[in-house]
Each structure stands twice: as structure tokens, then as C-alpha cells.
Amino acid sequence: MKQTRHRKPVIAANWKMNKLIQEAVSFVAGFPKDPEPDQKIEVVICPPFTALQTVAEALRGTKIKLGAQNLYPKSQGAFTGEISPLMLKDVGCTYVILGHSERRHILGEQDTFINEKVQAALAHDLIPILCVGETLEERRQGQTETVCRSQLLGSLEGLDAEAVKKLVIAYEPVWAIGTGVNASAQDAEETIAYLRRVIAEKWGDEAAAAVRIQYGGSVKPQNIAEFMACANIDGALVGGASLESDSFYEIIQGARRGSERHEV
Ligand code: 13P
């Protein structure tokens, strides 16, 4: 039986700390304006802050959405060096990546702070892409589920079911990020199905059925279709392979093919 996917998958490019303005301009110039003509998949580009304005202008009139990679959980004020959700809305963002493992591990971000950011994003009508994932050490010790559950519940503390339905969650095992070693589609599907069960326990079946959960970590044109063929995987958060317009476009096309293979 072929089951229609009722959640719209999201393929998001996380450029991380890459691309000067001119490089961002070249990427968008070389990227199809309409990569998803029938809108079965949501396409999002998350440039660094310095390129948001330029990319927003280049994407105007297309269906491609703009995302940021972080925010500070206040609307404005004396927070030198920080960027507010209000500013992200102002520049044209729809999405914001929060709790990325690079911020958790390099900058020491904790779940309580990430939780404030999630709440601030939602209060300003930005859709959080909340990242969770275990390190290699944690995986070896059999703690994948415990770690992901604790990050998820800690980051979503205080949200109601309606808020949870709006989220995108990205399961990004730290050992798979930027290493070329992706999780197998089966392992990713199992952990993502587990996260959906955690959401069902805490916020109910409706929220669990609505929330979109992506996989991230060494996603490439060659492996995206396998992930997308899994019942619980609703897209991908792509780092390295999103930096070239050709490979990011191939990932979107692969996602379409995989999604069509989505059978139960
Ligand atoms: P890579 O696709 O480069 O492994 O990065 C994944 C990631 O961290 C996306 O947020």
C-alpha cells in the first residue's frame, strides 16, 4: 500500500560560517528559482547573518524560504553582538536553527538557554529547527535515546501541543556531522521514531503526528533518497553538501524521488 505523506518534508541548507556576500549571490544565481514546482517539499536556505539580507532579496518572489542559524531570546536591548528574533523577522526569515551541536559543544549552550530561544522564536512567529543528537561516546555507551530525549524535553520545556506541532526537529548525531559517515537510514529512522514516541507521550498523538523531524549528518545527493523513503523522516538538514548549488539541488530532487518511494 502506498501511503501519502501527510507532513510536508523540509530540506534545509545550513551554510554554517561559510560564504561571503558575493559567494551567496553566486549560489542563488546558479540555483533554480523554482526547485519545487509542485511544492511537495519545503526548501529553506540558512545563510550566515551577514548574507541574510542579500539572500532574502535574491529569493524574493520564489517559494524558497529563508532561515537563520541562531538568535538571542530577547526582542531588543543591551545585548552586544546578538541578533533578535524581531531582527530575523525584519530581514525576512521564516525559520531559525536552534541548539545545533556546534553551538552546544563549541559555545557551551545548554537546554535551558535553547529553551528560551525556542520560546522566543515561536513568540515572533519564526519556526525553530531544533537540533538534537548524541556524540560518538554517548552512542558507544548505548545512551543515544536517553541523550536525545533529555535534549528534546529540556529544549521544549513549557511548550503546549499547538506549539510543538509547528516545530521542525533535526536529529543530528554529532559523529555524523561533517565526517562523511552518515547514520544508516534504518538507525536514523529508529531514533526519529523514538523521538516521535517521546513527543506522543508528552504532548499527545496529534502533536507527534504533526511535528516534522529531519535527519542531518553527511547527507549527500547519493543518500538522501534512502532517508526520505523512511516513514518518520521528514527531510534533511544539510551542511557541506548544501554549499554548492548543484549538489543542494540534487538533494532536493533525490528527496522527491525518495518521498515518492515512501511506502508501507
Ligand atoms: P554536514 O551535512 O556537513 O554533515 O553537516 C550537517 C549539519 O550539521 C547540518 O546542520
CATH topology type: TIM Barrel
Contiguous runs where pLDDT drops below 50 for at least 5 residues: none
Radius of gyration of CA atoms, rounded to a whole number: 17 Å
Distance separating the two termini = 6 Å
DSSP, total strands: 8
Strand order of the largest sheet: 1-2-3-4-5-6-7-8
Name of the CATH first level: Alpha Beta
Globally, the shape reads globular
Average of pLDDT: 96
Strand content: 5-15%
Secondary structure class reads alpha/beta
Annotation keywords:
globular, alpha/beta, 44% helix, 8-stranded parallel beta barrel, TIM Barrel, binds 1,3-dihydroxyacetonephosphate, 264 residues, 12 helices
Would you kindly provide a written description of the structure presented here, covering whatever features stand out?
The protein has an eight-stranded parallel β-barrel with strand order 1-2-3-4-5-6-7-8, surrounded by five helices. The radius of gyration is 17 Å and the shape is globular. Helices cover 44% and strands 14% of the residues. The mean pLDDT is 96. Helix 1 runs parallel beside helix 2 (49-59), helix 5 (111-123) packs across helix 7 and helix 7 crosses helix 9 (185-203). The chain has a single domain (10-246, 253-259), classed as Aldolase class I (TIM Barrel). By secondary structure, the protein is α/β, with parallel strands linked by helices. 1,3-dihydroxyacetonephosphate (13P) is lined by residues 14, 100, 172, 177-178, 216-219, 237-241.
